[in-house]
Amino acid sequence: MSSRTSGAESAGQHVSVRTTCGREIRIGHLALGGGPHPAWRVSLGISASSDTQDGTWAGLTADEARQLAAALLVQAAACDHWTRG
Fold first, then answer.
1. Strand, helix or coil at 1?
2. Vertex 56, ends 59 and 71: CA angle to 5°?
3. Which residues, in sequence order, are CB contacts of 61 under 8 Å at separation 6+?
4. Looking at the DSSP assignment, which residues form a beta bridge with residue 51?
5. Tally of domains within the chain
6. Which of 55, 64, 75, 84 is placed for a possible disulfide with 47 were both Cys, Cβ 3.0 to 4.6 Å?
């Protein structure tokens, strides 16, 4: 699994993580709506796997992104615990 950061796109910087199963997970941010006060969202894109046609994406509020991050950390810690068994 690898990760990289790149910039210079309209929404700013993003981070990409390539999983061992070959999917790319891309995390960034985007602005919804125009005008002086757009609704900012954290973007999460998951590329298609070799056996599916389409990838998927989600636009998360900052609070939703924090909840997801916390849940991922809890699950990662559980996997570490099981692995060390």
1. coil
2. 60
3. 41, 42
4. none
5. 1
6. 55
Q: How far apart are CA 20 and CA 66, in angstroms?
A: 24
Distance of alpha carbon 48 from alpha carbon 51, whole angstroms: 8
Q: pTM, whole model, 2 decimals? A: 0.71
Residue with tokens 């796997």: 49
Q: What residues pair up with 5 in beta bridges, in sequence order?
A: 15
Q: Which of 65, 15, 55 is nearest to 1 (CA)?
A: 15
Residue 45 CB-density burial (10 A; 0-12 exposed, 13-18 middle, 19+ buried): middle
Contact 17, 25 (CB under 8 A): yes
**Cβ atoms 30, 40 nearer than 8 A:** yes
pLDDT for residue 12: 58
Which residue range is the domain that position 79 belongs to?
A: 2-84
Quick one: average pLDDT of 73-79? 93
